[in-house]
């Protein structure tokens, strides 16, 4: 590991610590400052003034899941795009043809989803 | 300055030094958030023919946000009985920590920058995706109908716009030949990528606004239909951390747009005598102003328009942009 | 012990702790979040191995995308926070047998890797991960790469076909 690499990830770790310490610290500090007078009414779930009824953990429509599926697949494709973009200079035409094939297949999938009305949100 | 520290052998004193510098950046970011909220209220007031805050801290309301934060700190913290307690407490931390972590790779000037990662851009995108998990967790843990619905909507929106965001940034990576943000800035010495990649810039800007959950894409927080979205049940400082995460992301996103498309710290033409930090700050403020301007100008879009726009317009356009950029690069450079 | 070793042990501990929690917890959302902890710890281990591109992909795909699809799948089902029917954990005999099995597995793995030669260490890897991966992937492994794109297309179409059948049923109701 080079020094720059090691130091850079040490910084990432330090930022993670700071990002966790700030909320934890501020909330602990706030505990001594803020009042704490719990009551039955305060602890009920908010439902625009009505008394909360039945379970809130409802079953969601399948379209949420479909969009998540599309997201996973396209996210995986972007992972292939990035190394390609970085070395495009060195590889030239061959890499271009490869990627055009890749994008065509990707676009086919998107068109299929479009035609099947998966992309409709209603 | 930073370069020399990065090249020194890693040691505990280095980590302590980075901790100090990171804390300094955190202070700067918190100050930015404080005054960007004031600026937002002032600019929106101006655009809507109002005055905006003008009572606390002199004629310009300079201490208004400070007072708001103190109020939040002193507010009672309630956790609903029905909530899932451990996750309810954990969710603001999961949402906030990544928003600060992404700043580790953003180079502000040649001297003032932190981590120098070879995969900088992808790191930013990967880490910022973790916030979505925090948002769903917060919505689910609240055990509230509005919160869960808001959390799921926010997640659906953020994942849909992440794809065009990533794909449009690819045009920049193609031209720069690197994912390292410092290399990307240096590749813009002569021509900013705003001019070399206008389509990518537009897609990126729109997707960025949607990722930030700001108007016109602020459906997850639609007050009129969802009360407040995923953080209905949160109060006091726990709520403040969700809001803080949002504004820190605004800081990060404005900085990222400056780095990717506006040439970072590079000066305009012959004005090289003005230091890079000033240039960065100017471009950065311009981006933040555009975000505020959008908020004052556009009405909120409908849920179906929002989702279909990402998949049917932005995604095909960004794919076309990649092919176009590759063609231009292969035949004209 | 160097900083890298300390980091390795902490990350390994976090990865295992996440996995154990994922098995032990009874609430599905809690389980998914402990899985996120494991994913992130593994990303950290990749960083220690100088494989920063793989680490970032791990965070992007696993901690980001896969976690979200799991959460969405949970929201798709009927899940209640309060239906915690605890499975019986078995008697003393079961527990002793399990402990023995874990111990034996640990010893076997230790014996296996103690003298193992892993070849060159990570410092010999190219500094610019993404570039090296790109060069290999797009010049030597062209065919696998194109097959991956077909695989992704098939996965996409398959997912739509399966999910749309449910969707049709819902529309008819």
UniProtKB/TrEMBL annotation, chain A:
It is an enzyme of class 7 (translocase). Keywords: Cell membrane, Membrane, NAD, Quinone, Translocase, Transmembrane, Transmembrane helix, Transport. InterPro entries: NAD(P)H_OxRDtase_bac/plastid, NADH_UbQ/plastoQ_OxRdtase_su3, NDAH_ubi_oxred_su3_sf. Its EC number is 7.1.1.-. It catalyses: a quinone + NADH + 5 H(+)(in) = a quinol + NAD(+) + 4 H(+)(out). It comes from the Bacteria. Pfam families: Oxidored_q4 (PF00507). The chain crosses the membrane at residues 6-29, 64-85, 91-114. It is a multi-pass membrane protein. It is found in: Cell membrane; Membrane. NDH-1 is composed of 14 different subunits. Subunits NuoA, H, J, K, L, M, N constitute the membrane sector of the complex. Belongs to the complex I subunit 3 family. NDH-1 shuttles electrons from NADH, via FMN and iron-sulfur (Fe-S) centers, to quinones in the respiratory chain. The immediate electron acceptor for the enzyme in this species is believed to be a menaquinone. Couples the redox reaction to proton translocation (for every two electrons transferred, four hydrogen ions are translocated across the cytoplasmic membrane), and thus conserves the redox energy in a proton gradient. This is NADH-quinone oxidoreductase subunit A. It comes from Geobacillus icigianus.
UniProtKB/TrEMBL annotation, chain B:
NDH-1 is composed of 14 different subunits. Subunits NuoA, H, J, K, L, M, N constitute the membrane sector of the complex. Keywords: Cell membrane, Membrane, NAD, Quinone, Translocase, Transmembrane, Transmembrane helix, Ubiquinone. Its EC number is 7.1.1.-. It is a multi-pass membrane protein. It holds the Pfam family NADHdh. PANTHER family: NADH DEHYDROGENASE SUBUNIT 1 (PTHR11432), NADH-UBIQUINONE OXIDOREDUCTASE CHAIN 1 (PTHR11432:SF3). Its main location: membrane. Belongs to the complex I subunit 1 family. The gene is nuoH. InterPro entries: NADH_UbQ_OxRdtase_su1/FPO, NADH_UbQ_OxRdtase_su1_CS. It comes from the Bacteria. PROSITE patterns: COMPLEX1_ND1_2. NDH-1 shuttles electrons from NADH, via FMN and iron-sulfur (Fe-S) centers, to quinones in the respiratory chain. The immediate electron acceptor for the enzyme in this species is believed to be ubiquinone. Couples the redox reaction to proton translocation (for every two electrons transferred, four hydrogen ions are translocated across the cytoplasmic membrane), and thus conserves the redox energy in a proton gradient. This subunit may bind ubiquinone. This is NADH-quinone oxidoreductase subunit H. It is found in: Cell membrane; Membrane. It catalyses: a quinone + NADH + 5 H(+)(in) = a quinol + NAD(+) + 4 H(+)(out). The chain crosses the membrane at residues 15-38, 87-109, 121-142, 163-185, 191-210, 247-265, 277-297, 309-332.
TrEMBL record, chain C:
It is found in: Cell membrane. Keywords: Cell membrane, Membrane, NAD, Quinone, Transmembrane, Transmembrane helix. This is NADH-quinone oxidoreductase subunit J. It comes from Geobacillus icigianus. Its main location: membrane. NDH-1 shuttles electrons from NADH, via FMN and iron-sulfur (Fe-S) centers, to quinones in the respiratory chain. Couples the redox reaction to proton translocation (for every two electrons transferred, four hydrogen ions are translocated across the cytoplasmic membrane), and thus conserves the redox energy in a proton gradient. It is a multi-pass membrane protein. The chain crosses the membrane at residues 6-25, 32-49, 55-76, 96-113, 138-163. Belongs to the complex I subunit 6 family.
């Amino acid at each position: 590991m080079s020094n720059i690499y090691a130091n850079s990830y040490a910084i990432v770790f330090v930022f993670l610590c700071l990002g966790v310490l700030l909320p934890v610290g501020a909330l602990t500090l706030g505990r001594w400052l803020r009042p704490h007078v719990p009551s039955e009414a305060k602890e009920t779930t908010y439902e625009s003034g009505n008394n909360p009824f039945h379970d809130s953990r409802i079953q969601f429509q399948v379209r949420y899941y479909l969009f998540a599926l599309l997201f996973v697949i396209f996210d995986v494709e972007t992972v292939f795009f990035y190394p390609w973009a970085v070395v495009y200079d060195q590889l030239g035409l061959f890499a271009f043809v490869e990627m055009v094939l890749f994008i065509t297949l990707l676009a086919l999938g998107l068109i299929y989803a479009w035609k099947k009305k998966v992309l409709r949100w209603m | 300055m930073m370069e020399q520290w990065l090249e020194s052998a890693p040691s505990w004193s280095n980590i302590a030094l980075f901790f100090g510098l990171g804390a300094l950046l955190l202070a700067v970011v918190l100050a930015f958030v404080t005054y960007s909220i004031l600026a937002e209220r002032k600019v929106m007031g101006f655009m809507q023919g109002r005055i905006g805050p003008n009572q606390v801290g002199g004629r310009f309301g300079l201490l208004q946000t400070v007072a708001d934060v103190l109020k939040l700190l002193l507010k009672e913290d309630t956790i609903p009985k029905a909530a899932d307690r451990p996750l309810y407490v954990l969710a603001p931390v999961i949402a906030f920590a990544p928003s600060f972590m992404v700043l580790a790779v953003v180079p502000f000037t040649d001297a003032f920058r932190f981590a120098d990662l070879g995969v900088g851009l992808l790191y930013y995108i990967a880490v910022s995706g973790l916030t979505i998990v925090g948002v769903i967790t917060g919505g689910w843990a609240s055990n509230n109908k509005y919160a869960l619905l808001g959390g799921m909507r926010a997640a659906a929106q953020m994942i849909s716009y992440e794809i065009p965001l990533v794909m449009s940034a690819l045009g920049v990576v193609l031209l720069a030949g690197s994912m390292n943000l410092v290399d990307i800035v240096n590749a813009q010495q002569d021509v900013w990528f705003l001019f070399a990649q206008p389509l990518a810039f537009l897609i990126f800007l729109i997707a960025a606004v949607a990722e930030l959950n700001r108007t016109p894409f602020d459906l997850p927080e639609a007050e009129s239909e969802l009360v407040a979205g995923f953080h209905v049940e949160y109060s006091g400082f726990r709520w403040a951390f969700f809001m803080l995460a949002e504004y820190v992301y605004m800081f990060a996103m404005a900085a990222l747009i400056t780095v990717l498309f506006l040439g970072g710290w590079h000066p305009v033409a012959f004005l090289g005598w003005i230091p890079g930090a000033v240039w960065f700050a100017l471009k950065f403020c311009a981006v933040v102003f555009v975000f505020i301007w959008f908020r004052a100008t556009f009405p909120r879009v409908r849920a179906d328009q929002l989702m279909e726009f990402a998949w049917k317009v932005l995604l095909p356009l960004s794919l076309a942009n990649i092919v176009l950029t590759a063609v231009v690069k292969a035949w004209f450079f | 012990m160097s900083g890298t070793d300390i980091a390795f042990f902490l990350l390994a501990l976090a990865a295992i702790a996440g996995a154990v929690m994922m098995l032990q917890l009874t609430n599905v959302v809690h389980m998914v979040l402990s899985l996120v902890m494991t994913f992130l710890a593994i990303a950290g281990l990749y960083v220690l191995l100088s494989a920063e591109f793989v680490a970032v992909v791990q965070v992007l795909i696993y901690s980001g995308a896969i976690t979200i699809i799991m959460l969405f799948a949970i929201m798709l089902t009927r899940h209640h926070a309060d239906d915690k029917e605890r499975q019986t954990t078995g008697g003393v005999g079961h527990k002793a047998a399990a402990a023995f099995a874990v111990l034996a597995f640990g010893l076997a793995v230790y014996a296996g890797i103690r003298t193992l030669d892993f070849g060159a260490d990570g410092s010999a890897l190219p500094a610019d991960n993404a570039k090296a991966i790109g060069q290999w992937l797009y010049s030597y492994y062209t065919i696998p790469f194109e097959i991956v794109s077909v695989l992704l297309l098939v996965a996409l179409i398959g997912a739509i076909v399966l999910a749309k059948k449910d969707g049709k049923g819902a529309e008819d109701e």
